[in-house]
Predict the 3D structure of the following.
Amino acid sequence: MTTVVALSAGLSETSSTRLLADRLVESFGRQFGDASVEVVTLRELAHDIVDATLTGFASPRLQDVLDKVTAADGLIVATPIYKASFPGLFKSFIDALDADAVIGKPVLLGATGGTARHSLAIDHALRPLFGYLQALVVPTGVFASTHDWGADGAQALEQRIDRAAGELASLLKGAGTGRARDDEFDLFSDTFLSISNPGGAADDRS
Amino acid sequence: MSSMQFGIFSVGDLTVDPTNGSIPTENEKFKALVAIAKKVEDIGGDVFAVGEHHDAGFVPPSISTLHAFIAAQTERLILSTSIAHITTNDPVKMAEDYATLQHLSDGRVDLVLGRGNTAQVYPWFGKDPSKGVELTIENYQLLRRLWDEDLVNWEGKFRTPLQSFTSIPRPLDGVAPFVWHGSIRTPEVAEIAAYYGDGYFANNIFWPKEHYIRLINFYRQRYAHYGHGEPEQAIVGLGGQFFMRKNSQDAVNEFRPYFDNAPVYGHGPSLEDFQAQTPLTVGSPQEVIEKTLSFADYFGDYQRQMFLVDHAGLPLKVVLEQLDLLGEILPTLRAEFDARRPANVPDAPTHANRVAARDAALAAESSVEVDA
C-alpha cells in the first residue's frame, strides 16, 4: 500500500500547522483513495531531536519516525514560519535524516504564518531545502495565514489544499521519479576499486 | 593469555574535572598515561592504546615515543594506537617509527590506523582534508609494502616516488606489527582491512550498536570475499566504556557530573537514555560483565575488547580504581567469552602467534616441495 507521512512542525499545542496538516491529509486521502497516512508531530520529539543533534544518533522513538519518513512513498510537510523561515526544530529534524532519505520522493509543502507577508517563505526557504535533498516538490505550495482560516479566505485555502493534494496524489499514482535512495555501499566506485588494486597504473613491482 | 585480549584505550584529552574545576597539565597527563598503562599490565590486561592528537587540549602527538617509554617499564603489555593517523603521517616515517618500537618492545606493538577525526590537522602536515579516503588508501598500500618487501619501487599521488628503497629497521623476525583499521563511518576503511586480511576496530563508544553492526558485517563478508577465511574468522576489535562501583547506584551518582559535562555527549541526553542506547555501562561489576558479553551476540565472537576509562575529566586516582575493578572481572570475562567461542574463531593476534603461523606456512610450503 502507498504510504505517506505527514510532518507537522507546529510548536504550540493546539496548532494551526497541525490543522493544515490534517486538512492536507484529508484532501489527499479523498483524492488518492486507499493509502496509509501517518501524521507525526515534531513537538513530541523536541528533546529527542535536540539530543540527536548533540550525540549524532537518534533515540529509538526518533529513529522510528526517521525510518518511517525514509520508507514513505510521499511526504506532506507543514511547518510554521517564524522570522522569515521554518523554526530551528524543523531544520534539526531534517538534519537528523540521512542525506539521501527523501531522494526522488514526492513532497507537498505547506506552511502557516501570522500574516500573508510570510507566504513566500515556502518558495525561498522550504523549496531550496527540499531541492538540496533531491525531493520532488509538487508545484503548488499551501500557505495558510490567520486570514485564510477566517470566512474571507477559507474557500481559497480549500482550493489550494485540494490542488496541492491532487498534485501529490497524481504523482504517487504514476511511476514516481524513478529515483530512490541506494542503501548499499557502492563497491564499484573508483575509490573502492583502488583498494584491491594497490599501486594501480603507477605501480612498478618488476 | 586467553584467546581474547582486553585493554584500555585513551583519547589523551585534557578535560576539566567538572566536580572541582581542575585540569591536568600536559606533564601530569603524560605521567597519568604511563601510570594507567602500567596498571593495565598489573591487573592482567593485555593492551594499552592511545590516540594520536595534534590539537591543543590533547596529548600525545608522538605515540611511538610514549610507547617506547612504557615498553621499557612493562613486560607483557601490547602497546597500540587508538588511532594513529594514516592520512597525515608520512608512511615512510611510520614504517620506521613503529618498526623501531617493535624491536625495542620485542614485538609488543600493533597499530590501529584511521583517518583522524579533525579536518584541521591535515593542512598542518601539508595534506588536503578533502582527500582523507584517498590518502588512507595510498598511504596504507605504501606502508604495507615498506614492511613486507625488502626493496620498494613506488610511485603515488601524495608523496615523492621511492626507488630501490629499503625501510629500516626491517620488521622483527620478518613479521610486521599487526594492523587494525579503525573507522566509525567509512566503508572504504573496512574494505582495506578486508583486502589485506587485517583487523577491523570499531570504537563502539558514541552510537547505538546497529551502526557498528552494519560496518562489521560488511568487513566480515569482504574478508571472506578476499579469501582470508570465513566471515566469522575475521579479526574484530571493539571499544566500550564503563564506570563501575560495587554498588550500582554509587556508580551512577559518582559518574553523573562527568557524564553531564563530557566533551562529546554532555549537555544532551540523560545518562540513563545514553546508557540504554549505547555500549556505555555505569553500574556494578556484574552489569559491566553482562553488557560486555552481549557485544559478542551483536557483532560475533571477536578478538579484542578495549575500554575507554580516563576521559571526561575523571581524576587519575579514580581511573586507577576503575582498573582495579576491571581486573577483578577480567577472569570472568575471559572465561565466559572463551566458553561461547567456536573452535574455528582465531585467537587475538600477537607477535609470537603470528611468527609461529608464518613459520608453519613456510614449513608446509617446503614439505610440499620435498614431496613433489
Remarks:
- The domain at 5-371 of chain B is CATH 3.20.20.30 (TIM Barrel).
